[in-house]
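S., here's the first fold you wanted:
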Amino acid sequence: MKVAVECKSPLLQKSLEIFLSSHLSSIKNSHIVVRDYKVLGDDRGFYISKDSDGDLIKPFSKSSLIMALQKKYKKISPKVDVHNLDILDENEMDFSILQRRIESLTKEYQDNVLKAVRAFYER
């Protein structure tokens, strides 16, 4: 699933780019275009709004966004298996989230080891 983001709100634009980093594509090559304004006659359009007329209502979580996009994508492309959308090609994989998590766990482990060594020598 390829998604493009085109919002008038810079905050929403950046948030969506972060949430959808592994699915981002240009508007020309995307299956779905996420916007915070309505565009009439656009089948690929996905409208985010505070009102009930949007495809997704604010506030939302990353998981609710992904689920709503998958539902929209299934509607647009009924032959695609939605359960396999989370599996990325090797070229599309983004390891930055994993890298930050590993760094966080390593730092936490290092702090615990240093705490144990200090406690041992302070006796």
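And the second, which I think is the more interesting of the pair:
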Amino acid sequence: MTGEGVTGDTAPIRPGEELELDKLREYLRGRLDADVDALTVEQFPGGHSNLTYLVRLGGQEFVLRRAPMGPVAPKAHDMIREYRVLERIHPLFAAAPKVALLCEDAGVLGVPFYLMERRVGVILRDQVPPEYAEMSDLGGQASRALIDGLAQLHAVDIVASGLIDIGKPKGFLTRQVEGWATRWNGSKVEELPDMERVIAWLRDTMPQAQPPTIVHNDYKLDNVMLAPHDPGRIVGVLDWEMTTVGDPLVDLGLSLCYWQQRSGPFGAHGGAGWYSREAFIERYAQQSGRDVTRVAWYEVLGAFKLAVILQQIFYRFHKGQTQDPRFAKLDAEVASLVRVAAQRTRQADAEGV
């Protein structure tokens, strides 16, 4: 997540993830119309990937994004690209935050970073927040907002806007499968036979790609910020690091993967008005006008990609490149996702989809 959120969602900076405030202060001086001498920094503790901080400059607030500490996978955590993508998408899709400043000089904080506006809203994770506690249709409103927001993002005209050049739509699905398979082979610490079967199935049953759109590539409930007293309205979509252009059902498949994996009071989103998997798919089809017949393939791809992302993080922990204790048991989550993906392939084969 990018870290914008409601008041009180920050925490002291985790040991080992501190920023060099003197260097940051001097870099910002003259580059932002703000009181840099009043600089204070806190951390947004959520997320497992990029590091996100709240930067206060007197009465102004910004969100700072940078790559995680230590070695990272090639081409991952590219904050320069994320900044430039957001800079172009924001005028066309208002839920994308407005960027404020890019620093490409690694001499300031050790890696490139950028600042963007801070948006204030509610991010739903594993507890119902106080703002929504008395709402009887929280699930329905939030479900519709999430799905409709995705359809609206996919409706942005990438040709007229020139955004088609942020990716390569031709061969997109093949590159997705092969690229993530390569990342898996470069980060695995043990063999998982189910994973090899999943990769083979994705190759053998690949559908014809849908007409290309913007693809967020990590669109999920806790990357969406809702209005504080209106869960039916999105005020921010977060975490644009992997955004590209390609088949929009890649976003739908990954969203469904997250939708079914959530725990806590939201369960599998089946109660209290939350949309079921089937209702989610139907609503997206209605809002987007797209053919979702082969959605099962995209769900498997989503589980596969999520497993690889978590494996890359666990690999860094396994190699001692990060000491964050939150990463110690990610291997179990990876194994679980691989089992889910393998089971979905069998279901899809049995259903003939």
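Why I say that: The chain has two domains: 21-117, 130-351. Strands lie at 39-43, 51-57, 60-66, 99-103, 113-117, 213-215, 224-227, 230-237, 244-246.

Talk tomorrow,
H.
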